[in-house]
Design a protein that fits this description.
8 helices
């Protein structure tokens, strides 16, 4: 139970990170608000005391909608919105498998579903041993610690890639944060 809770907690932290990342991007590049296609009733608009309050509400709704999507769809949306490839890295298939296993752990007590197999294979994951629908997947010491490393890697790569692409004037600051992450990892 503790292991499953910790595993699910990894994804909760990842979700919080991606929400903060998207929020930070919009706050630093307010021109991106123009790309949002939300419709808001005039009555709802009039409830806000300021334009900034309205913007913050729209962004919160946008981030909530973003978080409800699968990780594959989230990355596709970011790629489309920012015209950048984000899934073209070696660990992508493992990340997809890990996120799909998170879904199995959350919703199916770890039992393999057709969707799990289909999504993993579609995204290029190669099973060492092909699971069957109904098999129960465990986490264990060979799976859980590498999952922690994997989510850290994906978060770091996602954050750094978007930061460097969307805010090129902050490259020196991005370099410093990357160096800090590398130093902390080496420690």
């Amino acid at each position: 139970v503790v292991e499953n809770s910790l595993f699910l907690g990894l994804f909760s932290a990842f979700d919080a990170f991606t929400g903060q990342l998207v929020s930070g991007i919009y706050k630093r590049k307010p021109q991106l608000y123009a790309s949002l296609t939300r419709t808001i009733n005039v009555a709802d608009i009039l409830q806000f005391k300021s334009f900034e309050e309205l913007q913050a509400s729209v962004l919160r709704d946008e981030i909530e909608d973003f978080r409800r999507k699968s990780y594959v769809d989230q990355f596709k949306e970011l790629e489309s919105k920012f015209s950048i490839k984000l899934r073209a890295f070696e660990s992508w298939p493992r990340f997809v498998e890990c996120s799909q296993r998170r879904n199995l752990t959350t919703h199916c007590d770890g039992e393999v579903s057709e969707q799990y197999i289909e999504v993993c294979e579609r995204e290029g994951y190669k099973f060492a041993t092909q699971p069957k629908v109904g098999d129960k997947l465990e986490l264990g010491p060979k799976y859980f610690p590498p999952s922690c490393d994997l989510l850290s890697e994906v978060a770091l790569k996602l954050g750094q890639t978007l930061w460097r692409k969307l805010l090129p004037e902050e490259i020196e600051e991005a370099d410093k944060k990357l160096n800090e992450a590398i130093y902390n990892r080496l420690q």
